[in-house]
Amino acid sequence: MRKAILAMFAALLAFSGNAVADNFPSRPVTIVVPFAAGGPSDAMARILGERMKLALGQAVLVENVTGAGGSIGVGRAVRSPPDGYIISFGHLGTHVANGAIYKLNYDLVDDLEPVVLLPSNPMIIVSKTAVPAKSLSELLTWLRSQPGPPTAGTAGAGSGSHIAGLYFENVTGIRLQFVPYRGTAPALNDLVAGQIDLMIDQTSNSINQVRAGTIRAYAVTDDKRVDSAPDIPTTDEAGLPGFHMTLWSGLWVPKRTPKEIVAKLNAAAVEALHDPGVRKQLENLGLQIPAEDRLAPQALGAWQKAEIAKWWPMIKAADVKVE
Length: 323
Ligand code: MLT
Fold this sequence. Notes:
The protein has helices spanning about 1-20, 40-55, 70-80, 95-100, 135-145, 160-170, 185-190, 205-210, 235-240, 260-275, 275-285, 295-320; strands at about 30-35, 60-65, 85-90, 110-130, 150-155, 175-180, 200, 215-220, 245-255. By secondary structure, it is of the alpha/beta class. The longest helix is centred in the last third of the chain and has 22 residues, at about 295-320. The termini are far apart.
């Protein structure tokens, strides 16, 4: 008798779970972007959200929840109900580096369910136009000749632009003074205004200012040039061989979100990434779309774990101090 009741209860649960998934989404879905509006993460989330709404049949909203290198926005998503309506947008910084820097009150792997790996882009070394350097080697000479540590804009400790800065210090031996902002959009504004000396930014964020000539570009941190910016050399070509960093992004939902809902969100994102108009927008920003065999939710999970193993030693060795 007891077994029969339990079996019936389990069937009821499965049925209701499927019913919930069947009706998902029945109201707008929100992507929480942990950095300021107008930046590279925000831009990608809005481009994808605009197309995902067609697949999901509901509006896809973007909410910017900033601070602490993106860890506050991710925490907001982690604490949300596991029902697929709150999605965490993140990247190498927020879903890898922050775990080696902050005492997070959540676990980046155990408290989040991977949904889909999103496009990536190499970082780009850029400076204010007042810097009298025309090449990367001239920039390094100028940076080394400064009386104090040159100022480098970041989106906060643990952000992609900060990790790139730590890596740059490691490779060049040049100590930088990091200036944290709530995203690389406001940091870029200050670079254009000459308030800070340089950034190691996502190509997708700086590329339009480089094209406008309001900032100066020296190299992209990859072994191949960016198709939409063929005139910018690689770090290998420009004199910093091997200084490679690609910032990849992704979507996650809270752990215990039904797998049927994860599958629906994944399918909507993949459909958006297949859309020619969306691809054109992303590639024009210098973004590289993942290969098909990397678009399943498990692929993001495996990649995140591999990146944690790769980056944590360098980040922990840098002994980053955060309040
Ligand atoms: C942003 O959108 O501001 C960036 O993703 C921040 C960063 O990680 O550098």
